[in-house]
Write the structure tokens for this entry.
Amino acid sequence: MKEENATSIEFFRDFRRVADLINGVIFHGKQIVRACDLQEQNPVLHDISKKDNRVSAVENTLDLSVMVTVGKAKFLLMLQGQTIEHYVMPVRASHERGTDYYNQWKKLQKKHNEVGDLKKGEEYLSGAKKRDKFYPVIHIVVYFGKKRWKAARKMEDLFWTERFPEELKNLFTEKPLPIFEMRHFPNEEWFQTDLRQVCGFLKRTNDKTKLKMYIEENQAVFANLPEDAYDLLAVMAGIRNLKLIKQEVKAEGGGFDMCKAIKEMLRDSRMEGRQEGEQEGRLKGQDEMATLSEKLILADRISELLKASTDREFRDKLLLEFGLA
């Protein structure tokens, strides 16, 4: 499992964040779903088939599968993290939802067969009664990529839609797949957990000044960031130094001080910049002196070479003379 995928799964195992994600992305900040309304499900989907009296199954593992209760209703949330675009994500999502619906049907059919309450005809053919209902399945993609998601969001995007008459288009038109573009989400204030700060941090990673200001403005959260949130930011932001200094910025509250981490990184980068500048200066000076020495030797001006090695003002004058300064 890739590090990006692993840190994303670990972060969203906290159901407070999942409930916050649902409230922010689906309900636009209204507090509808609570963490206690969520129940984790087996993330492994089995696509079972039978052939020649043999049963086989193809496994497909989701990042997270959660049953969500809203009032008297329930729906299954499938959460999928992506760091790059998936060009046929609607196909993948449709397959995963379809597999779950198929499994719901087969479980329902098995239950009816066990009690033997299906009548001949429509009920027996359907493996279900007319009153039977399924729970809906919703798929949300959490996208961490830097560039905007321009890949397909619905099956219609994968068709040559413009070639069809309107009457046919209406038959395959569907709602787009919810894509939560974390780096481009315009309303981070809709979130109530540290998902807000994670979103805000990633949105500002291309501007060090804005990032530093944002961390200072949200110091209460960033000064004691949970480990899973710190790890997610370090990996998704691609800031390797955050991982290297992780143990050095451990906070008294048990979390990790991102404020201190960023300050340390900026200090180190300034020091590295100075050291690189000094090193470049030394190398340039050495190159200039080597070239000057060669020219003075060829011009049989050895005495001036000896003076230039100890007299900086005289050396600068010679560098100008030979066009080396």
About this structure: Residues 269-278 have pLDDT under 50 and may be disordered.
